[in-house]
Design a protein that fits this description.
Elements lengths: L4 E3 L3 H4 L16 H4 L10 H4 L4 E4 L6 E4 H7 L27 H5 L32 E3 L1
Length: 141
């Protein structure tokens, strides 16, 4: 990974529980959020010409977003996030006043999926170590 960190999914995986593992992005059931099934799924972040990882420094330092995890591993396509949640320019969102945990709790940015709702991604307000580098659950390579 570009920033030299390994992201762990935490104790849930160690106990055999991973909410992301059950997320079905290819069924078309969530096409409003993820785009048409099969379109770009399976592409790699390298093939799409995007950085594997983006390292946010504002409003707090040490938040890693992994394109590689979302695109290559999860199969999301560009407009899953770049159709209103995020601009197509890396780090542009960190300059927005609502790009913080309160904004995420309102369903903005990462919070659109990372809400903890069933069949969505892990909750951003309870699993801090999955994004914030330097807290328990994230190790330096």
């Amino acid at each position: 990974m570009a920033v030299g960190f390994i992201l762990h999914r935490g104790a849930g995986i160690a106990e055999g529980q991973d909410p992301i593992a059950d997320l079905d992005v290819t069924s078309g059931a969530a096409s409003d959020n993820y785009g048409a099934a099969g379109e770009v799924y399976g592409a790699t972040s390298d093939a799409l010409g995007v950085p594997d990882d983006i390292y946010f420094t504002k409003p707090v330092d040490a938040v890693v977003f992994s394109h590689d995890t979302h695109v290559t591993d999860m199969g999301f396509k560009c407009d899953s996030c770049h159709s209103g949640l995020f601009e197509m320019k890396a780090l542009s969102s960190q300059g927005e006043p609502d790009f913080d945990m309160a904004g995420l709790a309102e369903g903005k940015y990462c919070g659109a999926c990372h809400s903890g709702e069933p069949q969505m991604a892990f909750a951003s307000d309870t699993q801090c170590a999955r994004c914030h580098v330097g807290v328990k659950g994230i190790e330096e390579e």
